[in-house]
Structure formats: C-alpha cells, structure tokens
Prior knowledge:
170 residues; mainly alpha; 94% helix
Amino acid sequence: MDKLIVPDTGLMFWTIVTFLCLVFILKKAAWGPLLKAIDDREYRLKSDREAAEKARSEAERIQKELEAQMAGVHAKSKELLAAATKDGEALRARLKAEAEADAQAIKDKTAAELVAEKNRLVGDLRKEVASLSVMAAEKLMHKSVDEGVQKSVLDGFFKDLDSSKKAGQN
C-alpha cells in the first residue's frame, strides 16, 4: 500500500517524456492543421460577415435609389395626368365652341334661306294676286289692260299696302 502513496520517479519521468512527445507530435500533426482550420473558419466567417454587410449596404442603397425613382415616376405620372386633364378640358372647350359656331352658322343659314324663300313666295304671291286681279278687272271691265298700266297700278297698290302694314305695326 505504500507503493501507491510514494511516487515512482522512473514512471513519472517516462510519463512526462511521453506527455511531451505526445504534445510535440500533436503540435506538429494536429495543432497546425487544427489551428489552420480554426483560422480559416474565422477568416471565412469574417469574410462572409463583411460580404453580408456589403450586400446589406448595397441593398439599402438600391432600395433608396428605387424609392427615389418611384417618387420621380409618381411625380411624373401626376404631372402627365394633370397635363392630359388640362389638354382634355381645352379640347372639350374647343369642340364645344366649334359645335356652337357650327350650330349658329346652320341657324343663320336656315334663317337666311327662310327669308329668301319667304321673299320668293311673297313675290310669287304678288304676281299671282296681280294676275288674278287683272283677270278679275278684265272680266269686270270686259276689256284688257295693257301690262304697263297693270304694273303701275299694282306697284301703287303694294306700296300702299306696305305703308299701311308698317303703320299698323308701329
């Protein structure tokens, strides 16, 4: 039992030598690649983090650009819509004015045609009345009245008729 409590120097020496050899072997064989793998992993994580940060910054920049472009497009669309509305109103007003002018021209033309037709009909009626009056007078007088006398009598009659008509209107 004493052997368990008393240290054995030979065993201790060989344990230390074995440990140091194992540390040397591990340093040469395992620690180098293990540290290199850890460094590579750390470098890769740092690179990935930097790339992600750069991508996030780029995405934010692109988003701001897109928002600015969208604001510009929105303003441009409002401007175009306002211009189209203004042009539409101007076109509507111009077409309305043209339609009113056309309607007035048609109205004036129709009124002129009516006046001309009325004057033509009045003239035809006067000729017919004159002809009938001459025929009636010839029958009453049993003789024919020459055309010059007939015309002067009728002109006088119509002047008197027009004068009395104007006096009645006033």
